[in-house]
Specification:
The complex is a heterodimer of chains A (437) and B (495).
Chain A: H1 4-7, E1 20-23, E2 29-34, E3 40-47, H2 61-68, H3 80-85, E4 91-96, E5 101-108, H4 112-124, H5 130-149, H6 154-162, H7 178-183, H8 186-196, E6 202-208, H9 212-223, E7 247-253, E8 260-266, H10 275-286, H11 292-300, E9 304-312, E10 319-326, H12 332-349, H13 353-369, H14 374-388, H15 397-402, H16 406-416, E11 423-429
Parallel strand pairs in A: 2-6, 7-11
Antiparallel strand pairs in A: 1-2, 3-5, 3-6, 4-5, 8-10, 8-11, 9-10
Chain B: E1 2-3, E2 49-52, E3 58-63, E4 69-76, H1 90-98, H2 107-116, E5 120-125, E6 130-137, H3 141-153, H4 159-176, H5 180-191, H6 202-207, H7 210-220, E7 226-232, H8 236-247, E8 274-281, E9 288-297, H9 306-317, H10 323-330, E10 338-344, E11 348-357, H11 362-378, H12 383-400, H13 404-416, H14 423-433, H15 436-446, E12 450-456, H16 458-468, E13 474-478
Parallel strand pairs in B: 3-7, 8-12, 8-13
Antiparallel strand pairs in B: 2-3, 4-6, 4-7, 5-6, 9-11, 9-12, 10-11
Helix pairs in contact in B: 1-7, 9-12, 9-15, 10-11, 11-15, 11-16, 12-14
The chains are: A alpha+beta (437), B alpha+beta (495).
């Protein structure tokens, strides 16, 4: 053996992120992590507003509004954020989730002050005009078409929100629909901006190359003077009722190459102590080619091209979906049967010690990989803020995974997956109408 | 999650510098005034250590401390370009089959062993290369290397695994062909580039036998034509020792390829921008895919024109604020995104400008794309416009080198085309050295007589297309009648 094998005996550890937190007088929370090893910096502004906050009858609005945030402000022309990032070798993006919206940039670190100024500016000084609103709405409609209408299974993924949640606004899905996107007005945008875009509804996360003292001064200078509105922030009050009976749907699309099936269950809130065990279960059931569903549905029975467990975890409770996309031998019926059989095997027989260790090793490696860049770390911190209400919770996630036992996995599999709390969706090719071929 | 725009990678630049420059704070600045950027810190590109094993295998190592991850990639410098077109998909199937069983392990055992370590082994083929790769935490490096080497050197190519994989590949193709963007790319391989689809066609996948796979492997997976790349938390000494231990036993005869001669780009000014227009009619398609496609002979990955082409692409369709995205998305709201790219070959490149739009606006978008190509041919961009587009390229290049996987991929790209690894350091200055007028010269020599390919619901844009392109012959093929293996692209016609 070569000498390197000695080092291989030691286990890798996930080092805690030594982050700093403070809250400004106007309510803005600031989380920073200094790391001067590369000359770049990642800046995220997280807002506590997401798809669930779409105004009634205007589904897709929070996401459409996210697009407007790149338009003119009192001090910046349209797309100035692109000039400040792309043009200097950086990039920007934003994303809207059911629970939150984030805006972020990665830039050479000498541009940090400029971006802090710009983020502070668009937090309070946005000017949405009619022309920009109309044009960006068309972009979002194309985004809908590209994501939902053009891909063969786009509609199926859209249905996972639309027909499973009964009352909670999660049922609207973040992308919305063409009709309700058309119904939104510029006045809605102004109101939405006033309601949710404010320092006491935001968290600034910055990771990378800066000097802490200098950074704190810039934050005070650009964000410290923003006013805190004295109106309360509107929160979602609807509560999703228990799902107490199985609901079944036969859905079709115009171009569906092979049958598909989705079996959807309720997931607990992101703050639930059961989440780590559910993550382990997900790896054992569908993570990689050694997973149970890959082995059973894809390799042995050969009825599926893909079989996966999708965890859509939200603060107010999400969904867990078993999704099978058929092979040429797949039918919605045999996919349903095979996925439920794998579920039942774990409920009845539990998991092996080896499977448990495999899942933990995989999740620890993934945690390490996601810490490879400053932006990766900023994303993790942001998710801890969004889902656990505490940026420092980012440092506890690996230990929680390590603490899960085989019995925990079997228990959550019994607790959350029942015959009377699921939604089953069959998704197939629509029959041709008269005169078509 | 729904993004403003899809971005392929996000990461940061690599630097070995530890000096930190603090920008001075301008205390008097009013809140409404934009601050100025501070002094930049320079980006340092990591250095590559190279050695050769006795069997001719090149070993390249980039040590990158900080995160306990190692990416290993075995690059084989042959891919789909050397497969027979009647067996299109052979390089891809061969690469995919490597992880499906060795002389001592079944496919399931391989998956179980590597996934137990929290790692992953991936294999794939491109047009000019094939790869087997590994991502692993550094504490499990030796165990994972042993599995990866077994997969690369001792594949069993079992008959039943090939059968399953062919069936899966065919299903995946059926799935992808329902998507307008994929279908457009698939058609362009044959129609414009004179190549075959690298992943294969239904007929060619069907035709591949175990003997074909075994022969492709024997002929093409050879140490002298391969490079073993290590990036991450591993020293050169440790990586070299692992290379010797696991790949030193690899020995095969050298086979030489006759390289195809490079064509010479002729100036074709006066010719039309669009030579042919092809519509693949996909009734009820959720969107139309609109493409301008051109094969560029004589400009390959290692050619002098690589950098002008890359800068031209950044201006036209690379990144959010490129001209295509400005005109099609930002100004007119006609798409979620429009862009362009070059697929590089040894002695030519395949250029495409692409977007998706609602069927109603397909013809309008085709016209906008043609206008942007014409603008490249007709005018020299200003510094004000071009300088930021160069920053997009150099910034993206640096960010890609931030992850072990990005670095390994960048190295693999260079080795594929026989370009020295030191080119990593030359990239940024080479981009900045491109002259504005070079773009016009490149466009004038290469971007005439391209093909417009539209995949979508033809009934919806038929009249508008005829009106906007009155002098253009429009060929229409129904998607259900498409046969990529036919000379005419139509089913029932002679192959």
């Amino acid at each position: 053996m070569i000498s390197a094998s000695v080092a291989a005996l030691g286990q890798v550890t996930v080092e805690p992120l030594n982050l700093k937190e403070r809250t400004l007088k106007n309510g803005l929370k600031v989380v920073s992590l200094q790391d001067n090893s590369t000359p770049t910096v990642s800046i995220h502004v997280w807002y506590d507003v997401g798809g669930k906050n779409d105004p009634p009858g205007k589904s897709g609005f929070a996401h459409m509004f996210e697009h407007m945030m790149f338009k003119a402000t009192r001090n910046m022309p349209n797309e100035k954020l692109d000039r400040l990032t792309e043009d200097v070798g950086g990039f920007n993006n934003a994303s809207t989730w059911p629970d939150y919206t984030n805006y972020y940039e990665v830039v050479p670190s000498n541009h940090l002050e400029v971006l802090l100024w710009a983020e502070a500016d668009r937090m309070v000084n946005l000017n949405v005009d009619e022309a920009n609103f109309a044009s960006e709405r068309e972009v979002v409609k194309e985004e809908y078409r590209q994501g939902i209408l053009a891909p063969p299974y786009g509609k199926l993924f859209w249905l996972l929100d639309d027909i499973t949640f009964q009352k909670h606004p999660y049922r609207r899905g973040v992308i919305g629909n063409l009709e309700e996107l058309s119904a939104a007005t510029r006045a809605d945008a102004e109101k939405f901006y006033k309601d949710y875009y404010r320092p006491d509804n935001a968290v600034l996360v910055v990771v990378g190359d800066f000097d802490q003292k200098q950074f704190d001064m810039w934050v005070d200078k650009y964000f410290g003077s923003l006013a805190r509105p004295n109106t309360p922030i509107k929160r979602v009050t609807e509560v999703e009722p228990e799902w107490t009976a199985e609901r079944r749907f036969n859905e079709t699309g115009p171009r569906v190459p092979f049958p598909a099936t989705a079996i959807v269950y309720r997931a607990p809130r992101t703050s639930s102590p059961d989440i780590p065990a559910l993550r382990i279960a997900q790896v054992i059931i569908s993570g990689g080619e050694s997973s149970r569903m890959y082995q059973s549905l894809v390799r042995n029975q050969q009825i599926a091209q893909e079989a996966s467990v999708d965890l859509e975890l939200n603060t107010e409770g999400g969904r867990i979906s078993f999704i099978g996309i058929g092979s040429d031998k797949g039918t919605s019926e045999n996919l349903e049967k095979a996925m439920l059989a794998e579920l039942k095997k774990i409920q009845d027989g539990g998991i092996t010690a080896k499977e448990l260790e495999k899942a933990k090793n995989g999740l620890v490696a993934a945690a390490i990989r996601s810490r490879e860049t400053n932006d990766g770390k900023a994303i993790l911190i942001e998710r801890a803020v969004a889902y656990l209400g505490d940026p420092k919770a980012v440092n506890g996630e690996v230990a929680k995974i390590q603490a899960v036992s085989a019995a925990d996995v079997q228990r959550v599999m019994k607790q959350y997956f029942k015959d009377d709390n699921r939604v089953v969706i069959y998704y197939n090719q629509a029959k041709a109408a008269e005169g078509e071929k | 999650m729904i993004n403003r725009m899809r971005i392929a990678d996000c990461g940061l630049r690599i630097s070995l510098l530890s000096v930190f420059v603090v920008a001075s704070c301008v205390l008097a600045a009013a809140q409404s005034a934009i601050p100025s950027p501070g002094a930049p810190r320079s980006v340092v590109i990591p250095s590559v250590k190279e050695m050769k094993l006795k069997n001719g295998l090149t070993v390249a190592v980039i040590e990158k401390k900080g995160v306990p991850i190692v990416t290993v990639q075995l690059l084989v410098k042959n891919g789909a370009s050397v497969e027979d077109k009647s067996k299109a998909g052979l390089a891809n199937l061969t690469a995919d089959l490597l992880t499906k069983g060795t002389k001592t392990k079944s496919a399931t055992q391989i998956a179980e062993e590597i996934e137990f370590l929290g790692g992953s082994i991936f294999s794939f083929a491109g047009w000019q290369n094939s790869s087997v790769g590994l991502s692993i935490t550094s504490d499990k490096f030796d165990q994972a290397m042993s599995i990866m080497a077994d997969v690369a050197l001792n594949p069993s190519f079992a008959e039943d695994e090939l059968k399953l994989l062919k069936s899966q590949t065919l299903d995946e193709l059926t799935y992808n062909l329902a998507e307008p963007g994929f279908l457009a790319n698939y058609v362009s391989t044959r129609f414009t580039f004179g190549e075959h689809p690298a992943g294969g066609s239904p007929a060619s996948i069907e035709a591949i036998s175990r003997a074909d796979v075994a022969k492709f492997y024997e002929d093409n997976y050879r140490p002298r034509e391969s490079v073993l790349i290590f990036v991450g938390d591993v020293s050169a000494a440790k990586a070299n020792a692992a290379a010797e231990k696991f790949f030193g036993v690899w020995s095969k005869q050298v086979r030489s390829y006759s390289s195809t001669g490079a064509g010479i780009a002729a100036r074709v000014e006066g010719k039309p921008i669009v030579k042919r227009m092809l519509v693949i009619d996909l009734p009820k398609s959720g969107q139309a895919s609109v493409n301008f496609i051109k094969q560029i002979r004589g400009t390959g990955r290692g050619s002098r024109d690589y950098y002008p082409a890359a800068v031209l692409n950044s201006l036209l369709g690379g990144g959010y604020s490129s001209r295509l995205n400005q005109e099609i998305r930002i100004k007119r709201g006609l798409s979620y995104g429009a862009g362009s790219s070059f697929a590089w070959r040894q002695d030519k490149s395949n250029f495409g400008a692409r977007t998706q739009t609602k069927n109603e606006s397909a013809a309008e978008v085709a016209e906008l794309i043609v206008a942007e190509i014409k603008r490249l041919v007709d005018s020299v961009p200003t510094d004000v416009e071009l300088s930021p587009r160069k920053s997009v390229l150099t910034g993206g290049f640096g960010r890609n080198l931030e992850t072990t996987q990005g670095l390994a991929g960048a190295l693999a790209d260079l080795y594929t085309f026989g370009i020295p690894a030191s080119e990593l350091n030359a990239y940024m200055p080479s981009v900045n050295a491109v002259k504005n007028a070079d773009l016009k010269s490149f466009a004038a020599a290469n971007l005439f007589e391209g093909d417009i390919i539209i995949v979508g619901d033809y009934e919806v844009f038929k009249n508008d297309l005829a009106k906007r392109f009155p002098n253009q012959t429009i060929s229409v093929i129904k998607a259900s009648e498409l046969d990529i293996d036919s000379e005419t692209l139509r089913k029932g016609d002679v192959r």
